[in-house]
Design goal:
7 strands, mainly beta, globular
Length: about 90
């Protein structure tokens, strides 16, 4: 498992999940270790240790090390969301 500050994290990712929230909220089968989006926008979701959703402004193609357990349809505008698991 990657640490929160692992600089080479995406080099160690073993698989990815393309997440589509157009049909509703999505709960990941397991907590992701990081993600990126192909377009800038917002990702609304719940982090591993949180009990409420948060809104995260993201840039296109930038790796983020947030550990999401779910992503919410309402308010998520960034497209091409890929979540990484190690």
């Amino acid at each position: 498992m990657a640490t929160d500050n692992a600089p080479g994290f995406f080099n160690s990712a073993r698989r990815s999940v393309a997440l589509d929230v157009s049909g509703g909220d999505q709960t990941l089968a397991e907590v992701c270790d990081g993600f990126h989006c192909n377009t800038a926008g917002n990702v609304v979701g719940r982090l591993q240790g949180d009990s409420a959703d948060g809104t995260f402004a993201v840039l296109a193609g930038v790796p983020y090390y947030h550990r999401f357990k779910s992503v919410t349809q309402s308010g998520t505008t960034a497209a091409g969301r890929f979540f990484y698991l190690t």
